[in-house]
Specification:
Number of strands: 14
Distance between the termini: 52 Å
Strand order of the largest sheet: 9-8-7-11-10
Order of helices and strands: HHEEHHEEHHEEEEEHEEEEEH
Structural class: alpha+beta
Largest sheet: 5 strands, antiparallel
Number of helices: 8
Shape: rod-shaped
Helix content: 40-55%
Amino acid sequence: MKRYNIYVLTTVIFTVLYLILAYAAVQIITKESVVILLDNDLKSSKMHSQKLALISAGAFENGVEKSKVIQDIQKSIEDDSEHNIFISIIDWSGKIVSYPDITKVGTIDDDAGSMVSNIKEDISAEDLYAFIDNFKVQDERLVTSQAFRLEPIPGSDLIIVSHIKFKNVIFKLNMFKNRFSFIFIILGLVLLLILLVATRLIKNHYEAVFDYKSSQLQNSVLNLSKLNESLENYQKNIAIKKEEEAKAEKEAIDEIGDKAIKDLPKKRLLTYVRNELMPITIEDISYIYLENTITYIIRKDGKRFTANDSLDQIYSSLDNKLFFRANRQIIVSIYAIDKIIKFGNNSLKIETKPLSEIDIVIGKNKASAFKQWLDL
């Protein structure tokens, strides 16, 4: 089950974030679409009202009877009731004289009558949208129209009233929301599918990398474990061989004489403490290193001494079973090595007792020789 947690978590996070963003986007896009629609309807309605007012005023100036003008207007607006915005004609008393629904002619238009004195000259599409959006679904006015603009007809007591049909606009508003919601749902599903596929590919890639790194790490740990085990065995074997070689060496000296003594590995190194000469036995040396052209010899107790000889000269006189030239700067004693750890990709790092003042690193070129040295 754990292997599927990442997909469940990805799906939940994406779904929550996407729904929040999609909801906001649908509201914004729907609003902009409806505002554009209303803006076009308002401009068209305004032009229609002004044109009708001018035509009607011209007819009155030419002596056309009022009843004839109203009759012509009635014929021109009878098909407008299904539009978002339609017009009607009232007189100054608020009585309807022309309306798309002819059954309302002769009745009082309360909304328009009350707006004669306080309606704005013009209303913006933004204001109209906010007005519509604030209506509740159960509001009875949603099934009726609302007057929002008046245009007097010069030379008469007639007023052209622009109405908005809320039911039509709300229907289109909901239609836009449903369409955009459907589009965003499909888009969300496609994006979620792409995200899950991408997550699977990335997960598989990193799992492969992790497995490879883990395998390398396990091999490194195994190799280091074997190397440290070889170190421990080698140190034990050296202690045993040392006693045996000491006896053999004493017997050899007695047989071959003083000349051979010069060719044997040194038992002591001559060092200096200030101006005082100080011999140090080989067994007491932890490591030897070079710094600023000065050769330093570190004893097991951590005390530091200097020597006049170079590292090359010192190393050539030491027993190569007991000392290893880690690099150009350091010679380390088998007795001082406490632990071997991995350093970088193919290098090794030696930890000593006492802890060395500088890092003792065996490069990848010498790592193989070091391992062979421990297996002696």
